[in-house]
Amino acid sequence: MRLLALCVLLAAAVPGQAGEPAAKARLHELRGKPAIVNFWATWCVPCQAEMPALVELEKTYGAKVQFVAASLDDKKTRDKVPEFLEKYHATFPVWYGVTADDLDDLKLGEAVPATLFLDRDGRAVFRILGQARSEEVEARLKWLAGDRTVPKPEPLVKHLEK
Predict the structure, then answer these.
(1) Residue 79, Cα to own-chain centre: how many angstroms?
(2) What is the pLDDT of residues 36-64, one digit of tens each?
(3) Helices and strands in the chain: count of H runs, count of E runs
(4) What is the pTM of this model?
(5) What domains can be seen in the chain, in order of their start residue?
(6) CA-based, 20 to 30 A from 157: which of 21, 37, 89, 131?
């Protein structure tokens, strides 16, 4: 089932080289390899809690699944992103300038963290709203990486405070 159109523009900028303008990133650029896009912010406590697990999972699944960190940090907090990534030893690409509207367009709710899983054709197949548990992420990564010995995980997990 197609949850989202492949050509959704994610209003995120990939940092350019020094002095170069940042380029717009699009979800369809991830086509060809399954992907996990984690939406987060430096000020988000649950984001801080889940980042170490994502970094560890990237070590195991990074050869088969593209990892992307999509930051909702605005102009006031964007300068904290490099320190955050260094603290958690995150080496995957980071998209800057993501907004709550992008989350809404992607059916990811209104808050971070949120995680989107795309198959190799760019179709959204899984979403986790709220702080992802390591085992939930890993089950979806296994399935995306081609392990069909495990049952297909549920397409939507919600861990949102009420």
Answers:
(1) 20
(2) 999 999 999 999 999 999 999 999 999 99
(3) 4, 8
(4) 0.85
(5) 24-155 (3.40.30.10)
(6) 89
